[in-house]
Specification:
Elements (H helix, E strand, L loop, with lengths): L1 H18 L2 E8 L7 H10 L4 E7 L4 E7 L5 H10 L4 E6 L1
Antiparallel strand pairs: 1-3, 1-4, 2-3
Helix pairs in contact: 2-3
């Protein structure tokens, strides 16, 4: 069962790579002032369906998000952060 699960996960990752649905977006995040702010931003963004990974940097006040473009958009991801009190602006998306 475990081997079957691993093959399925690997296949999905390869399929996403081949289909080109995996994207990365970088956001500028406002109002982060302490060490817990990035945790709040990260959790909010991860709640958006299709978001796979979020790396938030307090010093640069940025968030780099990897997501499935078939399930999420940069607007939805940014809105999730804004809704918890940390407004964002899209810096870059690929």
């Amino acid at each position: 069962m475990v081997a079957s699960y691993l093959v399925c996960v690997a296949t999905t990752t390869v399929a996403e790579f081949i289909m080109g649905t995996s994207r990365t977006a970088t956001f500028d995040v406002e109002k982060m002032t302490c060490a817990t702010c990035p945790i709040t931003v990260r959790k909010a963004m991860l709640r958006v369906d299709g978001v796979k990974e979020v790396n938030v940097d307090l010093d640069s006040k940025t968030a780099v998000v990897t997501y499935d473009a078939e399930l999420a958009t940069p607007v939805e991801i940014g809105r999730a952060s804004t809704d918890v009190g940390f407004p964002t602006s899209l810096r870059d998306a690929e």
